[in-house]
Amino acid sequence: MSDPYKSRLYQRNRRLVLQASAFRCFRCGGLATTADHIVPLSLGGSHDVANLRACCGKCNSSIGNEARLYLAARRRIGRSSRRW
What we know:
This protein is mainly alpha-helical. It has one domain (4-81): His-Me finger endonuclease fold. The chain has helices spanning 8-20, 57-81, and strands spanning 34-37, 52-55. The chain is globular and about 40 Å long.
């Protein structure tokens, strides 16, 4: 399977999002070098401009960690709620 981040669509939309935000991270205001997916690809998100926001590498990594923790907690809560 090919890397979805190397597609022409993603690269073009990433560039558009970064230029529209003047290369400023939406979270910390630092230099944005990446485009963060609002709805992750793993959860059915797309490379559409409406689903991307400019982000620096540090914030993008921390957002990914927060999402993983949230999903793990949601799974734990879902399992325990089915027991009663």
